[in-house]
Please model this.
Amino acid sequence: MNPTLKRLSAGARRWWTLALALILFVLAWRGSGWLRRGTHAVQPLATAVAAPLAHALQATQPVDENARLRNELAVLKLEYESLREAYDRDRRRGGKLSFPHQRLAKLKPVGLLARDPATWFKTFRIDAGEDANMRVGAGVLNTDGVIGRLAQVAPDSAQVQMVSDPNCRLSARLPRANIQCAVIGDGRGGCLLQHLGGQDDVRVGDKVETGAGSLSFPSGVPIGTVTRLIRLDGGLHLSGEVTLAAPLNRLDGMVVWVGEPKP
Model:
């Protein structure tokens, strides 16, 4: 294109742009009522689009709040069970419980770090260790009940030995008949009762919970339910299969019981 024509066409484009802007300004000034009517017409559509978005954003807040409240309620229930067991023991001894000096259990939230399919019902790792005051033997539980105990502790993680591991043995109690016993993992996602006599009053459906004197858990934490009784040694001893209270395929909401705080 000829440079002179090119300069002329560029100048013409600028003049046309200025003219169009002037026309739009005049129309907007003289037809402001029409613009307001157009704005009112568009407003319901904007509201219809924005309302669901605002509702969706607000709906996430109650969900988060409910999760936080459920976790707090679970911790309070565990503390209540610890107090109830201490009170019952003291009442049976005929002593007097001094509530102002009662020390509640320390519970620290932890999360799942890793789980190996080769040791699915034996071990897994959590995301807290020595730096968070974790110690070997500390009990791991959630809102449903016992999960396991710490077997190894590193600076920033720890290995949990699950209650279903055959190498895991815990002190237990059958609260209905107030019978002391022990549980051992069956390696298949449950556990078995141990140290029961053939005449002990144990029934299918009995609840099993942690017993007194455990170094890993406060007493009264749910372990599971007796689902089958097994007679051993010609009926001299009794065992039983226990279905765990805490499903081991859902390891969420976990806390570690690190013991009673020092006075």
User: Anything to note?
Assistant: Confidence is low (pLDDT under 50) at residues 4-8, 92-104. The longest helix spans residues 32-93. Residues 71-263 form a domain with the Thrombin, subunit H fold (CATH 2.40.10.340). The first strand starts at residue 107 and ends at 109.
